[in-house]
Every structure is written in structure tokens, then in C-alpha cells.
Amino acid sequence: MKKLRIKELVDSIVKYGHLPSKYFDWIFSNFSRQELKLFSNLLSKGIKYNNVIVSFSGKLSDINKKKINMMFRNKKILFRQDDNNIVGGVRFEYDDFILDYSISGTIEKILKDIKENL
Q1: Confidence of residue 1 (pLDDT cuts 50, 70, 90)
Q2: Distance (Å, rounded) from C-alpha 50 to C-alpha 69?
Q3: Closest Cα to residue 53, out of 108, 109, 99, 104?
């Protein structure tokens, strides 16, 4: 299968958010190893590009969820409560970026700076 067709397949999977298992069975039985590797890489990048993971502690209000949705239009947003790792604040993961506005992230940055300057 040509690279362009594999890219189109990945785009449709990312757009609709799923692919029935019978199609995955067909893909795994008919793609060459090189095609599977390309498919896997493109799918991973497509999912990463089109999704935003928002980790927070406590409760996130509906108003804040709406604001976050406005910030990341045309992206699927996964809200994940993570009281143990965030402590307070919020962390955004999208594309190849991590925006960490959490208390634990700030503490980690401060400790890293102290270690580097000693």
C-alpha cells in the first residue's frame, strides 16, 4: 500500500476516533512490516496532534472547561483529574508541548534550579 493511502487511512481513524476491530485485523494481516511501522508512527502523531490532555487537581468548573475548549478549538480534549501528581493547578499536554502550571511542576522547577546552581 502506498504511503499516501496509509496517511489517508490514519487521517480517517483520527477524524472519526475509532476503527472497527475487523479492519485492524485486516491491517495487521495484510500490511508489510514497513507499512505497519509507518501506520503506527502516523497514527501516534495524528492522535498526539489532535488531542489535548488536561490534568488538574480538585474540581474543574464548567466555566474553566469552556475556556479550555475555546483555547483548543478543533481538538479533542481529555480532562483528567490527577490529585496525586498535580497537587494544585493544571497541566496541558498537546502536540510536543507540555504547559505545566501546577504546584508540583513549579516545585520541581525550583528544585532543579537549586541543584544546578549548587
Answers
A1: low
A2: 13
A3: 99
> In the chain, what are the domain boundaries?
3-49, 51-117
Single-letter residue type at 45: K
Mean of the per-residue pLDDT values for the chain?
89
Q: Residue 101's closest CA among 90, 112, 117?
A: 90
Q: Please check the confidence at residue 41 and state whether its pLDDT lies above 90.
A: yes
Sign of CA dihedral 54, 57, 61, 67: negative
H-helix or E-strand spanning residue 34 = helix 33-50
Q: Residue 85's Cα: distance from chain center in Å?
A: 17
Distance from first CA to last CA of the chain, Å, rounded? 56
In contact, 43 and 13? CB cutoff 8 Å: yes
Closest by CA to 103, choosing from 91, 113, 115, 93, is 91
Distance CA 110, CA 112 (A): 5
Residue-wise pLDDT tens digits, 65-88: 999 999 998 888 999 999 888 888
